[in-house]
Amino acid sequence: MNATETYQNLTRKLREISVLGSCAAVLGWDEQTYMPPKGGTFRGEQVSLLAQMCHEQFTAPEIGEALSTLEGSDLLSDPDSIPAANIRELRRSYNRATKIPSRLVAELARVTTLAQGEWRNAREKNDFSLFQPWLEQVLNLKREEAESVGYTEHRYDALLDEYEPGMTAARLKQMFAELAQNLVPIIQAIQNSKCKPQGEILHRPYPIELQKTFAEQAARQIGFDFEAGRLDVTAHPFCTGIGPGDCRITTRYNANFFNESFFGVLHEAGHGLYEQGLLAEQFGLPCGSACSLGIHESQSRFWENQVGRSHRYWQMLFPKAQAHFSPVLADVRLDDFYFAINEVKPSFIRVEADEATYNLHIILRFELELALLSGDLAVKDLPQVWRDRFTQLFGITPPDDKLGCLQDIHWSMGGIGYFPTYTLGNLYSAQLMNAAQQQIVNLNELILQGDFVPLREWLRENIHIHGKRYTADGLIEKAVGEPPQSRAFIDYLRSKYQPLYQF
Amino acid sequence: MNATETYQNLTRKLREISVLGSCAAVLGWDEQTYMPPKGGTFRGEQVSLLAQMCHEQFTAPEIGEALSTLEGSDLLSDPDSIPAANIRELRRSYNRATKIPSRLVAELARVTTLAQGEWRNAREKNDFSLFQPWLEQVLNLKREEAESVGYTEHRYDALLDEYEPGMTAARLKQMFAELAQNLVPIIQAIQNSKCKPQGEILHRPYPIELQKTFAEQAARQIGFDFEAGRLDVTAHPFCTGIGPGDCRITTRYNANFFNESFFGVLHEAGHGLYEQGLLAEQFGLPCGSACSLGIHESQSRFWENQVGRSHRYWQMLFPKAQAHFSPVLADVRLDDFYFAINEVKPSFIRVEADEATYNLHIILRFELELALLSGDLAVKDLPQVWRDRFTQLFGITPPDDKLGCLQDIHWSMGGIGYFPTYTLGNLYSAQLMNAAQQQIVNLNELILQGDFVPLREWLRENIHIHGKRYTADGLIEKAVGEPPQSRAFIDYLRSKYQPLYQF
């Protein structure tokens, strides 16, 4: 068998494994949307069988052998070619999947399932001590996972690699330090400002049926293909790319709050556009899969914030909103609406935070999970350290752990290294918008006209179609001409908030 | 390994295969309900991968070896025990699955997929000649399948065995001849009667939202568990039992016809009660699976007709219907409504037929498919023979093949031997109602009170929980004290229609 045949067999097998995995994606979507409650136990059995089969098939020795054969072939002669990138990335995930002992995989699955339950219980009772032993167990297992996978510098890098391949703790430290240094003064200036938006505008009665049609139209306008996707309601909004021609997003409606569903839908539709923009013929292969969580988040944040919270977007959409929700917005001026949707206000809960303070929430979590993993911070001290550092960063102190270190599910699921990708997404999105402004003629004019085709196509050409062909770093640098950094995002925030808060 | 361990291993493996198969059931439901249109191609890939994996795993030599070991063990000493029944039925399906060459399986899949498309096309164009070569191919392959599987008497028996294990062409001929002999005079008497129901009652405007809540209440009242199931809308109504705790039914609404959704939902809920009544701990094994298609249909027909079209059911429900659809039924008397939902009228389309003439449609198809399979009837002659025999049975002649031999999808899918199970279901359901009347104290009174618990429990104890533990024949005989026959059904029709049509 020559290298080309080996490559074809391997990619055929990989596609098959992904088709099997995609069945679990349908089951996962169904579980969150329409599954009857008593179906839950059996659904667990279905999903875990599929996961186990996919893992077994992907870690089979033949996969490793095929990769070794291909690594010695001239398919790698152009390292940026699609086959070379697929082989590189398959090796990365094959090594990761085979280096972690199956005993550890099983133990992680068992402990994190229990830890999630205990976390929920602890949060409900506002009692960190109930969660403490479970977080300790999770951290021990994640340390073991990191040791199995291996790393050069920091143990954290081995975990981060699962979510943002190529990123390191050292680079994050440097990038986030710079970000915090510039962000904190902006937030302070905003807090000291006498200008305040009229927040009540967003808390008027917005009938859910009207919110639904308005959000759908907005998603359709930016290009989410409803012939190849759906929008449903779930308790926790998400986007799931099932496979070519099928990507589904969800939202939740609050009859007295405009932002929740509208910006939620733009956010998920941004994720959805990414999934819909992947190359169908590369389905199941790295070059047909999302580059990283940070890049994925850059796409959602791009449409939610860079576009969706911009003044020119609402110049286009506000008259339509006034007509759609008539008479609720009849007495509201565009500029007041624009100010309201861009209010900055320190608060305790990450998922409710504005564009600016959101990143302080992430920086806090990054610092703490780094210290927890290294052992510099004992789990028992987490609540106090959280409160102290939160106060330093935000100028306010969480009154309890429910509004502090018990608010997020991630750590109980073993998601150490996940949080930073949210802020990376924010940083990337600002860099991408800068580049789009430079490269697309009359972009502002197009947005004013509600024509998003050139912008979407630009993202598709520069981000979506590449999948994992390049690392996140490489992809950003290729698209915007510079590596990831925080300056573009800071400039973006400053230029948006200075006129609003007049500092 | 002793026999008990072998049995445990085998049942564990079988359960796993069924869990995998149940994923395809979710995907199938999703395809009919919520899947976006562009997801169709990929969905085909998912479903065919799962089907192929299930087939491979079920036909693996180890399954056959385990069965051989168990067949020599004392687990079979009580042939009616659950393990013995599971082994017996697994052997039956294992033999069937392994006797058909994989080349033939693939060819059947290929040809029937194409034949369905050609059938649709032929029906649309009302041109049988387009479908003729495809039906010939399907019949050739089904003959080959029958030869591979083997049979004692009639080739047809090998095909029937897939849908109604144990039933034979010879017994069907005898049972259906007796049925036709008694049914045709009843239908003739009805046609000669001067009494006619006021059909327009059912064709008034029934708002879909009201139909939905009314049908849901009716399904809930007879015991369909909506915590373990759902009701959705599809073009072609169906019931799918996904697994323990998850069984879904569908319907379609016609804003100007009461029967379509109401009796459709009762029908599917009857199927659903059967699925919800199977033993969860036997999931994936014959004793946790429906006995036969005929038994399944007996459950749907039981609730749709034996209960749902009875006078006492509407004594209970009609006042509620009047209130629910007010004022649409304000001027209607219970007896006129009852007569309207029990109208008998020969018509060309099977799926629109009433309880009585429905069975003539089945007898026609049974006779013709028997002759097609044996070769006594050439495919090219089918349209004419259909018209002639239809005229004999119904007294009216289909004006074209769309209303004749092109109306049903079954043959294009290779479903030769499927049709008789519909009428078997009707016959079984009448026998079951007779037995229930004898065995449940005050059943009529309970129905008048809308209390269906004892009736549902009786069906659960006598039918549902047994799965395939007994053959359909054995199960009916055990439940009602006599083997399947047509007398109970004929008596039921006569006692219902004589007072209405006064013959």
Strand-helix topology:
The structure is a homodimer of 503-residue chains.
Chain A: H1 3-33, H2 40-58, H3 61-71, H4 82-99, H5 102-125, H6 128-149, H7 155-163, H8 169-192, H9 208-222, E1 229-233, E2 239-243, E3 246-251, H10 258-277, H11 293-307, H12 311-324, H13 334-340, H14 358-374, H15 382-394, H16 420-439, H17 443-448, H18 453-462, H19 472-480, H20 487-501
Parallel strand pairs in A: 1-3
Antiparallel strand pairs in A: 2-3
Helix pairs in contact in A: 1-2, 1-3, 3-4, 5-6, 6-7, 8-14, 8-20, 9-10, 10-11, 11-16, 12-13, 14-15, 14-16, 16-20
What is the radius of gyration of chain A?
Answer: 23 Å
- Which residues of chain A sit in consecutive blocks of at least 5 with pLDDT less than 50? none
Strand content of chain A: under 5%
Give the largest interface.
A-B, 38 and 38 residues
Name a few traits of the molecule:
20 helices, 3-stranded mixed beta sheet, Neurolysin, domain 3, 503 residues, 3 strands, mainly alpha, homodimer
Outline:
By secondary structure, chain A is mainly α.
Describe the structure.
- 2 copies of one chain form a homodimer.
- Chain A folds into 2 domains: 3-162, Methane Monooxygenase Hydroxylase, Chain G, domain 1 (Up-down Bundle); 202-347 and 422-470, Neurolysin, domain 3, CATH 1.10.1370.
- The first copy, chain A, has helices at residues 3-33, 40-58, 61-71, 82-99, 102-125, 128-149, 155-163, 169-192, 208-222, 258-277, 293-307, 311-324, 334-340, 358-374, 382-394, 420-439, 443-448, 453-462, 472-480, 487-501; strands at 229-233, 239-243, 246-251.
- The radius of gyration of chain A is 23 Å and the shape is globular.
- With 503 residues, the first copy, chain A, is mainly α.
- The mean pLDDT of chain A is 97.
- In chain A, strand 2 and strand 3 (246-251) form a beta hairpin.
- The first copy, chain A, starts with a helix and ends with a helix.
- Chains A and B meet through helix 1, helix 2 and strand 1 of A and helix 1, helix 2 and strand 1 of B.
